[in-house]
Design brief:
Number of helices of chain B: 9
Number of domains of chain B: 1
CATH architecture of the largest domain in chain A: Orthogonal Bundle
Strand content of chain B: under 5%
Structural class of chain B: mainly alpha
Shape of chain B: elongated
Order of helices and strands of chain A: HHHHHHHHHH
Oligomer: heterodimer
Largest sheet of chain B: none
Number of domains of chain A: 2
Helix content of chain A: over 70%
């Protein structure tokens, strides 16, 4: 494949799966300019690794791996982390903001986002993959852990979510 | 409300995405794929440059040592410097190899462990470089003055000056450690200063090791249930 052809194929695949990019970036960054930086970093790493992409595997699985790896590394860099610690209350989800009649869903989504924010880097990856409807074996493959481990972690996250939600209701 | 309900909400939100994506195609158009550059690649090139510079220093020190084989007062400081530069270069080459081996399409835990081990290597190298600087100042003066200008520092400045410099260097190390521990966390706005002080204080290293432990705990649950 020529370089131009490869670029076109890459951009098409990226366009088709851009929601993955959006979800990962939103899951790990609160600051809009950081989101742009992280998205750019992910795209560059995807492009750098595109030669090694084996099309026998799903593009989404491969993309998730790279996106989450870059996001976790980005999130953990000291300067970025300091910038990322914007309190959840200080921002409104961009998507929900465009829906004037969705105040209740805004609150619920904000609650979910706050819950995700409080998870550590690795559990954050699990919950993003889970909410996106990935199967346990796919999540296990992306993360490099066993399916049993994924199931255990998701069940713990669910328990924690239930408790946190009840606490939020009580307040 | 259960997480399953949230999943339904997440899916509903997902359907809206197509029409209101903020990270739209413009992002991909802006991404100049031919000039793809990342922090790791920049770091890689920077490290290679340092390796080449240090290699040049090793060669120069080698010439100096061969010239001063009979002059023990110049030979010892030059050998000390040479050993330190070689050790630093080995540490840098290890980092170059570690960066080259990072392939982001491997499973997350594998990559995160590699990235964190690389971070630990970098912090260690920075910490030992900073700690050795005050001590290496004396041999550096002796060797550079003799090598570059033919000035014998022992005779020119006197032994007392060199001993005082060495003692000052020894005294600076605990002082630097104390200042770092006290002020590292307060210097949030200055990235470089924070990195240097964090490395000296050990806080960066602790954070990296903490994350490695978290990775291990994350993996450990595989035998649960």
């Amino acid at each position: 494949m020529t370089t131009a052809g490869k670029q076109a194929a890459f951009v098409d695949l990226l366009e088709e799966h851009k929601k993955i990019l959006y979800r990962v970036v939103n899951g790990y960054c609160r600051n809009p300019s950081d989101r742009q930086d992280l998205a750019q970093n992910i795209v560059v790493q995807l492009w750098g690794a595109f030669d090694r992409y084996d099309d026998h595997y799903q593009f989404s699985t491969w993309m998730y791996r790279i996106a989450l790896n870059v996001a976790i590394s980005f999130y953990r860099s000291e300067t970025q982390r300091a910038k990322n610690t914007v309190p959840a209350e200080d921002y409104i989800l961009e998507i929900a903001a465009d829906e004037p009649d969705s105040a209740r869903s805004d609150d619920t989504l904000r609650l979910l986002q706050r819950f995700i924010d409080r998870l550590d880097e690795l559990n954050k990856a699990i919950i993003i993959l889970y909410l996106d409807g990935n199967r346990y074996d796919t999540i296990a493959e992306i993360l490099g852990i066993s399916v049993t481990n994924v199931a255990t972690k998701i069940s713990r996250i669910k328990l924690k979510f239930r408790r946190d939600f009840q606490d939020a209701q009580a307040v | 409300m259960e997480l399953e309900d949230m999943k339904a909400m997440w899916e509903a939100q997902d359907r809206k995405l197509d029409s209101i994506l903020r990270l739209n195609s413009k992002l991909f158009e802006k991404a100049n794929l031919d000039k793809a550059d990342t922090a790791l690649k920049r770091l890689f090139r920077g490290l290679l440059f340092e390796v080449v510079l240090n290699f040049g220093a090793v060669v120069l020190l080698g010439w100096f040592i061969s010239d001063q084989l009979s002059e023990i007062r110049f030979l010892i400081p030059a050998v000390v410097l040479d050993v330190c530069v070689i050790a630093l270069n080995i540490a840098l080459i290890r980092q170059v190899v570690a960066i080259r081996d990072i392939d982001y399409d491997a499973p997350i835990l594998v990559i995160q462990r590699k990235v964190e081990l690389l971070k630990i290597q970098r912090i260690d190298a920075l910490k030992w470089t900073l700690l050795s600087c005050p001590l290496l100042w004396v041999p550096l003066q002796i060797v550079s003055f003799q090598g570059l200008f033919g000035v014998d520092v022992y005779a020119f400045f006197g032994i007392d000056y060199l001993v005082a410099n060495l003692l000052f260097g020894i005294a600076v190390i605990p002082l630097a450690l104390w200042i770092s521990k006290r002020y590292a966390s307060r210097m949030k706005r200055t990235g470089l200063a924070q990195r240097l002080m964090g490395a000296l204080a050990g806080s960066d290293l602790n954070a990296a090791i903490g994350f490695l432990n978290a990775l291990a705990r994350f993996e450990e649950a595989k035998n649960a249930n």
